[in-house]
Amino acid sequence: MLKKIIQVSDIHFGEKTFSSDLKNNLLKQIGNENPDLIVISGDLTTQGYVNEYNDAAIFLDELKSITETHVIPGNHDARNVGLLHFEKQISKRKFLHMDKDGGFAIVGLDSSEPDINDGQIGVDQLEWLKDELNKIPSDMCKIITFHHHLLPIPQTGRERNILLDSGDLLRVLIDYGVDFVLNGHKHVPNVWMIEKMVTINSGTATTRKLRGDTYPSYNELLINDCEIFVNLINSETGYKKELANYSVAVDGNNYGICASNHNSL
């Protein structure tokens, strides 16, 4: 059964380079794609102010009219006590979504820290993650999302904002057989693979805060019984490009990636 997941990140309501035209393009494109699930990997806002969250809440209502939508906070959402508004107007800061028909589950984590760009998961949340991963059957695809990237992203300049406890988290993800990690933060799309686990970074879909020759974009994951495709979609033009594809299989009772193909950006 084919399932379609849209991953968006770094919306940034309140940012001076935010584009209402790009936002409207994004809504129209996602509506045309008719996905089964939308995941937003943080930074709905820029300064965490209530007026930014008001705009974000309207935007989320539009997405939820298309399909089920899950959100986790980013570093910008946590500025100026912004997580108070996040929890009131948006959602809880972590989640578990399980799709047994589609054969996948997604766990959302909060990697934000108040008023700083650095992020971490923390000991308590790591323990919560282990408990949630234990609830997921071993023959399902396991996906994790949080805002800060787990691994360095090319063409983003000096590396400063990898998770402070990335090593501890990486050990948990590998030990518990996580297959895909969805991040945002640096506004540059990228795909890495380590220990048969794929990390997928999303660009910004709605701002002109772009690095190098990147363009506003978001990601699409197509999941079926034996393959997963990752597409990059230009939110300005609608142009779609395949970033990667993976052959997947259940060996015994364990789901895993058995072959991969990555294309250049």
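Next protein, fold it too.
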Amino acid sequence: MLGVFRYKDRLGDRLVLILRGYPCSWGKCTFCPFALEQSTNISRIMDDNRRIISQALEILGRESIRRVAVFNGGSFHELPYDTVEALRPIAMGRMFEVEERSEFVTLAGLEALVYYYRPEKLIVRVGFETADERIREEVLRKGMPDKEMYRLSRLRLEARERGLPVEIWTYLLFGMEGIPDESVAESLKKFRELFDGVIAVRYKKYLPHHPRPKPVPEWLAQLLEEEADLVDWGGDQWVIGQRKGEEQ
């Protein structure tokens, strides 16, 4: 799944970079497969990411793409500095999206990212997944209590008051056993009130010990398509894992 991907969808014409990162500092979410692509080998991380960033720069040099997203199966703040620095020409003057766990998102941190990258807009995606704290903590084991959800909702307003071009978006997980469809609908409504954007993601099982997927009723699919900013239905292109024999 590592690499550069082109999309033209509800969010516009955009480029998505999937980078290799260090293992997630939390690493306890019951449904997450990204440990399969993470590494503790700093040389490998930097080499892979330099190659991917170089490919992205070639595309951006030929085409006028104003929105770029960078993901690494964890938090942006957990990337090595070599990668963070190499991303500057990609982020500058564009809508620049990154992914973070909630504890990494602070006002000082947002100011630093805006100062360093000079984006047209910085969009920070956070995976709260559900507005139901019991499901988030007992079923998903996210380690993000409600107080973090409300803190970030306030933080985005504080950033705006300081004139920072920052938005905070959240993911909404659906199609997984343990998350009732009615709860997904309620979470969507709550997230629309608290955050600047909502990306609904259909759950996909990657490992044997992961929760089981479940069908998505037509009424929920329609609601998500109408009310979420983007619905990621998954697909064969999102193949997460590594080739047999690859070194971590």
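About the second fold: The longest helix spans residues 42-62.
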